[in-house]
Design brief:
alpha/beta; Aspartate Aminotransferase, domain 1; 2 domains; 11 helices; 14 strands; 15% strand
């Protein structure tokens, strides 16, 4: 049996390596390392895949969030509502711009931001909502957009973990995660469903004015060479990363389908285990399983993780500690009583190996050992 990895990028490379090598070699031969043709071509191809009018690439997913908030003209002191159960980048960009992070509890089943909790958190100072499409499925965007329209708020989707997920509206139409709000953001970190071999990111929007300003701000504020209409930053997707992302984009639907098949295998294997809650699949969203995250009951999560390590099965806790307990954000004045769901999830969640190149013998070995752990307890 092949060694089990949380994300096996080598196995993926072994399958598509010849395509990757060719794409990188073409960039090396062209020497167009910054803003080469592949960058524009990748943006155009991603636009088509996402069904969005504009894709603006940038250096990483954190920059994408930062650029989105810069372009919307948010001012210091404005409140931005987001979830407490997310990677730190979602909230750090809010703080860096002098805005006030307002963090709220997620839903205990989907792990995504709760519309009702967001509703209660809105104040006259609220200017934006940042839903995070966590672990591979969409937050309840229809309700969030209704709130935003009612209160004249911006919506910035953090879709870094959900590239390719579909949101199903009540009228039967669908849109890709990241294309519903005013601006969507994503990351191409190597472990993402659509990942490069370094850092990379992008923004999505259907607003031409916003797209033009995003392109300007991401390139030092330039609109025409050496003419600076905006105060900007240097945040560019380099050409080599764009070239290999073009290759991976062609395979993305196949990769996401394979992830779902892995998730289905896990679901079926764990169906009889009362000590495990498998990931809830929302009726309004497909799930592309960036992570396969279970909840482990009876305070046995850490014991299970240690047991799996002894069997050479990796697992990860996303996330071990809520944002509100981090020293950098203690100034916000929150405590555990404000976030019962987040506090509970951080003690229960465990992500198992998940990638499109998992083999049946690996899955059999993982699920057999997980079930063995709980059988010994009973």
């Amino acid at each position: 049996m092949r060694e089990i990895q949380m994300v096996d990028l080598r196995a993926q490379y072994e399958k598509i390596g010849s395509e990757i090598d060719h794409a990188i070699k073409e960039v090396l031969l062209s020497t167009a390392f910054i803003k080469g043709p592949d960058v524009k071509l990748f943006e155009e191809e991603l636009q088509e895949y996402m069904g969005v009018k504009h894709v603006v690439s940038c250096a990483n997913g954190t920059d994408a969030l930062y650029l989105a908030m810069m372009v919307l003209g948010l001012k210091p002191g404005d409140e931005v509502i987001t979830t407490n159960f997310t990677f730190i980048a979602t909230v750090e960009v809010v703080a860096l711009l002098g805005l006030k992070p307002v963090i709220v509890d997620p839903e205990p089943g989907t792990f995504n931001i709760s519309v009702e909790v967001v509703r209660k958190a809105i104040t006259p100072k609220t200017k934006a909502i940042v839903p995070v499409h966590l672990f591979g499925q969409c937050a309840e965007m229809e309700g969030i957009m209704e709130l935003a329209k009612k209160h004249d708020l911006f919506v910035i989707e953090d879709a870094a973990q959900a590239t390719g997920a579909d949101y199903l509206f009540k009228n039967g139409t669908t849109k890709k995660a990241g294309t519903i709000g005013h601006i969507g953001t994503t990351s191409f970190f190597p472990s993402k469903n659509l990942g490069c071999y370094g850092d990379g990111g992008a923004l999505y929007t259907n607003d031409e004015t916003l797209a033009g300003k995003l392109r300007s701000i991401a390139n030092h504020g330039m609109k025409v060479r050496y003419q600076y209409d905006n105060i900007g930053v240097n945040s560019r997707l380099d050409t080599i990363q764009a070239a290999l992302l073009r290759v991976k984009l062609k395979h993305l639907s196949k990769f996401n389908k394979a992830r779902k098949e892995v998730a289905d295998f896990y679901d079926e294997a764990f169906a009889r285990c009362r000590s495990i809650s498998v990931p809830e699949r929302a009726s309004y969203s497909s799930h592309i399983f960036h992570q396969y995250t279970i909840k482990v009951e009876s305070n046995k999560r850490d014991e299970l993780k240690k047991f799996l390590e002894s069997k050479k099965i990796p697992s990860m806790v996303y996330y071990p500690a809520p944002l509100h307990v981090q020293k950098a954000y203690s100034y916000l004045g929150y405590n555990d009583n404000d976030f019962p769901v987040t506090t509970s999830l951080c003690k229960e969640v465990l992500s198992l190996p998940m990638h499109p190149d998992m083999e049946k013998d690996q899955l059999d070995y993982i699920t057999t050992n997980v079930l063995e752990f709980f059988d010994k307890l009973s």
